[in-house]
Design a protein that fits this description.
single chain; about 0% strand; globular
Amino acid sequence: MFNSENIQTAAFFALVLVFEVLERVRPAREVDRWKDLKIDVFSFALAIVMNRLSNYMIISFVNATAPAWMLGGWRALQGLPGAVRIVIAIFLVDFMIYWIHRAQHRFDPLWRTHAWHHSIEQLYWFSGFRTSFLHSFIYNIPQAAVPILVFNLSPLEAGIGYSIGLLIQFWEHTNINVNIGPLKYLLITPAYHRVHHSTAHSRTNFGTTFSLWDRTFGTYHDPELVPVTAPLGLGEPIDKKKMARMLVGV
């Protein structure tokens, strides 16, 4: 039986297989996975717990406090086909996350919620799950609330939207050498996001799905101008005490 949980689980394992193969066939740079494997496995397990907890908190709050007319979705959008509503929801959520992401790099309290993600020194499909609790909570506000309040997506439609988001998560952090041609003017690429994770250019390329936000609002940096071997990460050591705070996001 197809439901939200089954779709998400199937999508995850399918994406693991696809991106594992792609990284071995067309790697962008040399990566020593064993170096960070323990911390990446730990981060992944923690991310699952944090995402479920933050989603539960947000959805419970929305259901308890939002007016009935909001929970019913906007009438103009309710009549649209499910596929159209999913696409519009992805577009709107991505626009909101662009500004959240940009604010995280500008304001120190918000940067603390995001710093753990930027501790990544080797990008590959598994590394992108390194996020703090507060990072997950902040990002899940638009990701959980918008589909319910604005688009009134069914659990099945929300599961499909989540799976597309998971694809984007894998795609932007994957270590592959790929050219998507003219689509790069609309969508981000692994090289595009690698620039954002570079130590020297972390205040550029904030887009998560669409590159047009950075191109429109002046935060775009051409990936071709940054060597593929450019250093990634914070550029500073992280002790256990600091790591504990970074995991929370404070």
